[in-house]
């Protein structure tokens, strides 16, 4: 039973063309802290996805033609409603995703921040006038909405990954069809309830979920979809991007990471430990920017390991609605199995577990006990693949060049972290890391005001910040030939 102050937020249908669409079939949504079913959501497929593209196409001309200030007003209203409903949205999120309530509240604020940021940016989607290449030439470049946008978003941030895409799309004058993760659809649908209440016109924002492959097929192949944005795993991102090329869509991809977290001998040890805790254990280790490999220089290694161990021992995995919980469950049993496999593989290769957290959550929940491993070899699974769970592994290194070599020895390139009190080294190493984001003496790099995105197989495109609109606009050159009077 989901008890909300505003029960209207709890809907289970698709939202297409401003109307709520049920379906004969449904799929169930589970609470990962208990395994219990909390809702049955309408299961839609390719037909509904096509109807949603119809609706988004029909709504596009009027939405794109609105004044930027008017679009900004709608976004502002949506933002205010999200903020006003924080408690309910956070509760829904904790129930379907598992993260502790405090983290869910934080994510709602984070999600809302993208809407307010892009409400402001809507009025700054400026063009450029270029001096003509002859006396009779006038060259004007304008930025126009790219068209209908399709977005597929993940379960780890059920609200913020939506607003980070839909905010700039709507600000630019695009319309959107969203397929949220089938593991966490309730948060997405609640955002649509609030978009509707904010007066955003029918068809501007549509949501369809259910048969993910069938919906994904429509969103990646329908020629009316001109832009496709995906956050999720690297293999799925590659497959979807390849399909998009059949109709040459604009694509942006936020894919997996394998973040190195480098601690030099000269680092502030307390700052490095709190940065590592924030980066590694946020959302139970289920973020693309989570520290995945903690590289520690030999001179500070034992002290850092001991200090981190005492923090890891304080982690308590349980029901996110319980006060004592500071670590939620993982999303499902497969996620727990992966963490266990990475831990066992590292131990088999000579690593040692020096600290463990507790599990206080109910039986049936997908809990993984946090663990800290030392002496992890560079070729351990947890160093090569994204663990996406509460397992921290320390790798020892000697010289600055070794740290950069180990850090860059991956196909991923999303986020990296460096802790040092030597300014020159901080700059040098940050520049040498092949990553889209570097946290220098901080474990928290995500904010609506800065660009988020990776290089290499972590994807392309940037979300948030002044650059976040770029993926939703096309440049148009108007080359005018002027007759002399
Ligand atoms: C992600 O894990 O994909 C997003 C994390 C963030 O925005 O900080």
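Q: What amino acid sequence fits the structure above?
A:
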């Amino acid at each position: 039973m989901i008890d909300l102050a505003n029960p209207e937020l709890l809907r289970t249908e698709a939202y297409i063309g401003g109307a709520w669409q049920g379906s004969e079939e449904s799929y169930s949504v589970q609470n990962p802290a208990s395994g219990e079913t909390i809702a049955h959501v309408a299961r839609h497929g390719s037909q509904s996805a096509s109807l949603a593209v119809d609706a988004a196409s029909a709504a596009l001309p009027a939405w794109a033609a609105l004044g930027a200030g008017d679009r900004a007003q709608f976004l502002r209203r949506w933002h205010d409603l999200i903020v006003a409903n924080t408690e309910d949205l956070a509760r829904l999120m904790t129930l379907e995703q598992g993260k502790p309530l405090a983290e869910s509240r934080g994510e709602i604020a984070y999600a809302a921040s993208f809407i307010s940021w892009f409400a402001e940016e809507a009025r700054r989607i400026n063009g450029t006038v270029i001096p003509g290449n002859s006396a009779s030439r006038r060259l004007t470049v304008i930025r126009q909405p790219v068209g209908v946008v399709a977005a597929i978003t993940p379960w780890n941030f059920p609200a913020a990954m939506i607003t980070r895409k839909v905010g700039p799309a709507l600000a630019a004058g695009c319309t959107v069809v969203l397929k949220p993760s089938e593991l966490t659809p309730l948060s997405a649908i609640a955002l649509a309830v609030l978009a509707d209440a904010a007066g955003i016109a029918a068809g501007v924002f549509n949501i369809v979920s259910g048969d993910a492959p069938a919906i994904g097929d429509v969103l990646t192949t329908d020629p009316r979809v001109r832009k496709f944005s995906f956050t999720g795993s690297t293999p799925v991102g590659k497959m979807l991007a390849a399909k998009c090329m059949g109709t040459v869509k604009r694509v942006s991809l936020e894919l997996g990471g394998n973040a190195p977290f480098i601690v030099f001998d000269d680092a502030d040890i307390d700052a490095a430990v709190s940065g590592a805790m924030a980066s590694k254990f946020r959302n139970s280790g289920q973020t693309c920017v989570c520290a995945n490999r903690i590289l520690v220089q030999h001179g500070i290694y034992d002290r850092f390991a001991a200090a981190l161990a005492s923090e890891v021992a304080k982690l308590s995995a349980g029901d996110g609605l319980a006060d004592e919980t500071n670590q939620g469950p993982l999303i499902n049993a497969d996620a727990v199995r992966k963490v266990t496999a990475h831990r066992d593989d590292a131990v088999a290769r000579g690593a040692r577990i020096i600290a463990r957290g507790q599990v206080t959550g109910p039986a049936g929940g997908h809990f993984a006990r946090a663990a800290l491993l030392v002496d992890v070899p560079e070729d351990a699974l947890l160093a090569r693949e994204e663990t996406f769970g509460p397992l921290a592994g320390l790798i020892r290194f000697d010289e600055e060049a070794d740290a950069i070599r180990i850090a860059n020895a991956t196909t991923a390139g999303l986020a990296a972290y460096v802790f040092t009190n030597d300014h020159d080294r901080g700059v040098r190493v940050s520049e040498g890391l092949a990553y889209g984001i570097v946290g220098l003496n901080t474990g928290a790099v995500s904010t609506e005001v800065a660009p988020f995105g990776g290089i290499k197989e972590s994807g392309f495109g940037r979300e948030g910040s002044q650059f976040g609109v770029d993926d939703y606009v096309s440049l148009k050159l108007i080359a005018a030939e002027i007759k002399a009077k």
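Q: And what stands out in the fold?
A: Residues 156-157, 231, 254, 287-289, 446, 452 surround succinic acid (CB under 6 Å).
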